[in-house]
UniProtKB/TrEMBL annotation:
Name used for this protein in its record: ABC transporter
SUPFAM superfamilies: ABC transporter transmembrane region, P-loop containing nucleoside triphosphate hydrolases
Location within or outside the cell: Cell membrane
Record membrane topology: Multi-pass membrane protein
Keyword Nucleus assigned: no
UniProt entry keywords in alphabetical sequence: ATP-binding, Membrane, Nucleotide-binding, Transmembrane, Transmembrane helix, Transport
Length: 594
C-alpha cells in the first residue's frame, strides 16, 4: 500500500457521517439545488404520511371521548386523508424526479471532472496505480455515488420526516411522553455513529479490493494470448480468484461487523417502547395526562421508531459512498503537473543541462546528463537496456519533470512552455503503437484536428500507408479495433507515423520504430520516417545501430551517465562501449540456427 493510500485510510477512518454528507454535498456543487429539492420533497412526502397518522389519531381519540360522528367530521377526515395521499404521491414523484436526475448529472459532472484532472496529472501518477483502479473509480465507485444521491440521501430524509412529524404531534399532546420517546434515540445515536466510524476503514478496503479484482480481470483478458501460449491459464485464473476471494472476505467481514452493532442500535431504540408506556402510565395515574394524549402516544410509538430502524439499511450505502469519495479524492487532490504561462522558444534546438531524474528516489535513472541537439540535426541515443534512453525522450515531452537540472527547447525551459505549446513543438513516435478504437481516418486525423481529406491522404502516402489502407474493405473508414488490433504491427506503425507527419511538429522524438518490424515493413517505415524527419530536430533511441550511422551525433548512455559522444566512425575507433555494442551487433547478424 502506498503512503498516500495509507494516509487516505487514516483520514477516512476518523470521518463521521456528517463529514461524509458534507463532502458529498460539496461534490454536488453545480447541482446542489436539485439535490436539495429531491431530499426536501422526500422529507415532505414522509411528513404527509405523518398527516395521515394524525388524522387517524384525531378520529380514534374523538370516538374514544364519545364525540358524535357527523357528516362534517367525516368530510374533514376524508379531506385530510385525501390531502395526505395526494401530498405523498406528488412529493414522491418530485423527489424521485429530482433525486434520480441529479444523481446522473452529478455522476456525469464528476466523471468529466476526473477525466480533466487525469489529463493534467504527470504520467508517473498513472503508472503508480494498478490498471483497474482508475477504471473502477469511473465505473463502480461512480455507480455507488449515483446510488447514494438517488436513493441513500432520500431514504435518510424519509426516515427522519415521519418521526419528526410524530414528535411534533406528541409535543402538542404531552411534552413528557415526547421526551421519553426521544430518550432511547438519543442513547442509541452514539452507537450508530460509532458503528459507522468502525465501518469506514472497512468500506475503503472493500472498494480497493474491488478495484484490485477489476485489475486482475483486465490483466487476465488482455494477457490471454500470452497466458495460453505459455500454458498459464491455471495461474492466471488463480490470481483472479485470489483477488475475488479477497473482495468476498472483506465484504463478509463488513457484514459481520455490522450485524451486532445494528442489533444493538435497534434494541436500544426499541427500549423506548417500555419507557414510554411506563411514563404514560405514571402521568395518567397522577392525572397529569389526558386519556387522549395517552392513546396518541401509544398509537404513534412504533410508527416513530420504525423509520429510524430503516436507517440501518442506509448505513452501508453511506459508508460505500464515502469510501468511493475517498478514492475519487486520491485523484482530485493529487497535484497537477505545473502549467505556467507559455514561453515562446527561439528555434528548435534541444538542450539538457545537468539533468538528474529518478522514478524512485533510491534508484537514480539519469545522473548529471548534459548535451545539446542543434536545430535540424539528428541525435541518436544508444546504450544497454535500463540505461535511461527512453527516459530522456519522456523528459523532453514532459511525461515527467526532471528532479534537478534544466531541459530547454529553443532556449525555453520545457516546464515553462506550457502543455499546448509543447504539444505543438514535439511529436513522439513510440515503439509500441497505440491506436484508438475508431476508423483509420480518425486515428490519423488526431495529429491535426479538422484536417481535410486531402491532408489525411497526403500524410498516409508519405507514411507509406495509403496503399494498404485502400486495399482494406472500407479503406480509410476501416475500424482499427481496440488498440489497433485489426491491423498488423507494421500497419499500426505506419498509421502512427502518418499521424505524426500530419501533426508537422518541428521536434521529433522517436523510440526506435523498427525494432520489432519485419524487413518488408521496415523498408516502408524507414521511407516514411525519412519523410517525417525532413528539416526537423530529431532525437532517436536506437536499438538497431545500423539505422543511426548517419546521425550528426551519437550519445552513449550507461547507468544513467553519458559515457561517450560523437559520430559513428569516431566512436568505433574509440574502442569503448559503443564499439563493443557494434561488435555484438555484427556477431548477431551472422547468427543462425544450427
Amino acid at each position: 500500500m502506498s503512503i498516500a493510500a495509507s494516509r487516505d485510510e487514516a483520514t477516512h477512518e476518523d470521518r463521521s457521517d456528517i463529514e461524509s454528507l458534507r463532502r458529498a454535498w460539496h461534490l454536488a456543487e453545480p447541482l446542489k439545488g436539485r439535490v436539495a429539492r429531491g431530499v426536501a420533497y422526500r422529507f415532505a412526502q414522509s411528513m404527509m404520511l405523518g398527516l395521515s397518522f394524525g388524522v387517524v389519531i384525531w378520529v380514534v381519540i374523538g370516538l374514544a371521548e364519545g364525540e358524535a360522528l357527523t357528516g362534517i367530521w367525516i368530510a374533514q377526515a376524508f379531506g385530510l386523508m385525501a390531502l395526505s395521499l395526494a401530498g405523498q404521491l406528488m412529493f414522491g414523484y418530485l423527489s424521485v424526479r429530482n433525486s434520480w436526475l441529479s444523481s446522473y448529472e452529478v455522476a456525469g459532472h464528476l466523471r468529466l471532472r476526473i477525466l480533466e484532472k487525469l489529463r493534467h496529472l504527470p504520467l508517473g501518477f498513472h503508472q503508480a496505480r494498478h490498471r483497474g483502479d482508475t477504471v473502477t473509480v469511473l465505473t463502480s465507485d461512480m455507480q455507488m455515488l449515483e446510488s447514494f444521491f438517488s436513493d441513500g440521501l432520500p431514504r435518510i430524509a424519509q426516515a427522519l420526516g415521519l418521526p419528526a412529524a410524530i414528535f411534533i404531534v406528541l409535543l402538542t399532546r404531552d411534552w413528557a411522553v415526547a421526551l421519553a420517546t426521544a430518550a432511547s434515540i438519543a442513547v442509541a445515536l452514539p452507537v450508530f455513529v460509532g458503528t459507522s466510524r468502525r465501518l469506514s476503514k472497512l468500506g475503503l478496503s472493500r472498494q480497493d479490493k474491488q478495484a484490485e479484482a477489476g485489475a486482475r480481470m483486465i490483466e487476465f483478458v488482455q494477457g490471454l494470448p500470452v497466458i495460453r501460449a505459455f500454458n498459464r491459464m491455471a495461474q492466471g485464473q488463480d490470481d483472479f480468484r485470489r483477488a475475488i476471494d479477497d473482495f468476498r472476505d472483506i465484504s463478509i467481514q463488513m457484514v459481520l461487523q455490522l450485524t451486532l452493532p445494528m442489533a444493538l442500535f435497534g434494541m436500544i431504540v426499541m427500549l423506548g417502547a417500555p419507557l414510554v408506556i411506563w411514563v404514560t402510565g405514571l402521568r395518567t395515574e397522577a392525572q397529569l395526562m389526558e386519556q387522549g394524549a395517552a392513546i396518541t402516544g401509544l398509537i404513534l410509538l412504533f410508527s416513530m421508531y420504525g423509520p429510524l430502524l430503516a436507517l440501518l439499511g442506509v448505513m452501508e450505502t453511506v459508508r460505500m459512498a464515502d469510501a468511493s469519495l475517498v478514492r475519487m479524492d486520491r485523484i482530485l487532490s493529487s497535484p497537477d503537473q505545473p502549467e505556467p504561462a507559455d514561453l515562446k522558444p527561439q528555434g528548435h534546438a534541444v538542450r539538457f543541462d545537468a539533468v538528474n531524474f529518478s522514478y524512485d528516489p533510491a534508484k537514480p535513472v539519469l545522473r548529471d546528463v548534459s548535451f545539446e541537439v542543434p536545430e535540424r540535426s539528428m541525435t541518436a541515443i544508444v546504450g544497454p537496456s535500463g540505461s535511461g534512453k527512453s527516459t530522456v525522450l519522456s523528459l523532453i515531452s514532459r511525461f515527467w519533470d526532471a528532479n534537478e537540472g534544466r531541459i530547454t527547447i529553443g532556449g525555453a525551459d520545457v516546464t515553462r512552455i506550457g502543455e499546448a505549446g509543447l504539444s505543438d513543438l514535439v511529436t513522439v513516435v513510440f515503439q509500441q503503437v497505440y491506436l484508438f478504437a475508431g476508423s483509420i481516418r480518425e486515428n490519423i486525423a488526431m495529429g491535426k484536428p479538422g484536417a481535410s481529406e486531402a491532408e489525411i491522404e497526403e500524410a498516409a502516402r508519405a507514411a507509406q500507408a495509403h496503399d494498404f489502407i485502400t486495399r482494406l474493405p472500407n479503406g480509410y473508414d476501416t475500424e482499427v479495433g481496440e488498440g489497433g488490433a485489426a491491423l498488423s504491427g507494421g500497419e499500426r506503425q505506419r498509421v502512427a507515423i502518418a499521424r505524426a507527419i500530419l501533426k508537422d511538429a518541428p521536434v521529433v522524438l522517436m523510440d526506435e520504430a523498427t525494432a520489432a518490424i519485419d524487413p518488408t515493413n521496415e523498408r516502408a517505415i524507414q521511407t516514411a520516417l525519412a519523410r517525417l524527419v525532413e528539416g526537423r530536430t530529431l532525437i532517436v533511441v536506437a536499438h538497431k545501430l545500423s539505422t543511426i550511422q548517419a546521425a550528426d551525433q551519437i550519445l552513449v548512455l550507461d547507468d544513467g551517465h553519458i559515457v561517450e559522444r560523437g559520430r559513428h566512425e569516431e566512436l568505433l575507433s574509440g574502442k569503448g562501449l559503443y564499439a563493443r555494442l557494434w561488435s555484438h551487433r555484427a556477431r548477431a547478424a551472422g547468427w543462425k540456427l544450427g
